[in-house]
């Protein structure tokens, strides 16, 4: 007898198996480059993906701390309930992310969208602004990738038609990305060990 949960685990495994590992590696490298140029990583998503955005920003900010290394600047655009609800109430829900980016986004930054469907209008609108601003963009989506997979520099798609499977796959991907970023930083420091006191690489 096979239990339901075993089939679910198989579905998550299959979804992760559909991911192009090279694309994940490229995104990890871009995150490191943003860190090197002291840019900021902005992460966004709706519903369960909002929680994943918060978790990913936490891991990128804290998991990567080591010695005198400069800190990674990662911000989840889902975390300020006051600003999110203000824009949703006074303007449109589709403006909740773009309006947070407008005062701060710079070309050296990276905007990451987490969207199971890949078609959430507030996410797409913010990405459109990021492209216009000259920032790097990335996306984690499911199903067939959606609009975000066609408009971002670093699209990662977990192939599944199950929302929970996609969201779990994205959570695991974010853990893997954060750990790979740590690995790349450590390797860089081994190859180029000269680090100034404030963590800036010489």
TrEMBL record:
Residues 27-187 form the SIS domain. InterPro entries: GmhA/DiaA, SIS_dom, SIS_dom_sf, SIS_GmhA/DiaA_subfam. It comes from the Bacteria. CDD domains: SIS_GmhA. Coiled coil: none annotated. Pfam families: SIS_2. This is SIS domain-containing protein.
């Amino acid at each position: 007898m096979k239990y339901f949960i075993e089939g679910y685990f198989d579905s998550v495994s299959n979804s992760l198996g559909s991911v192009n590992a090279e694309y994940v590696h490229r995104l990890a490298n871009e995150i490191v480059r943003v860190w090197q140029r002291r840019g900021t990583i902005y992460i966004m998503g709706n519903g369960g993906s909002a929680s994943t955005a918060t978790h990913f920003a936490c891991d990128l900010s804290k998991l990567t701390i080591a010695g005198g290394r400069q800190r990674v600047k990662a911000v989840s655009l889902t975390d300020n309930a006051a600003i999110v609800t203000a824009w949703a109430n006074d303007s449109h829900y589709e403006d909740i992310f773009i309006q947070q980016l407008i005062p701060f986004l710079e070309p050296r930054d990276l905007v990451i969208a987490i969207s199971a469907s890949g078609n959430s209008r507030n996410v797409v609108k913010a990405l459109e602004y990021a492209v216009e601003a000259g920032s790097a963009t990335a996306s984690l989506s499911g199903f067939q990738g959606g609009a975000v997979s066609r408009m971002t520099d670093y699209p990662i798609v977990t192939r599944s038609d199950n929302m929970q499977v996609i969201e779990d796959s994205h959570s695991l991907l974010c853990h893997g990305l954060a750990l790979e970023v740590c690995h790349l930083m450590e390797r860089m420091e081994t190859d180029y060990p000269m680090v100034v006191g404030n963590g800036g690489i010489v």
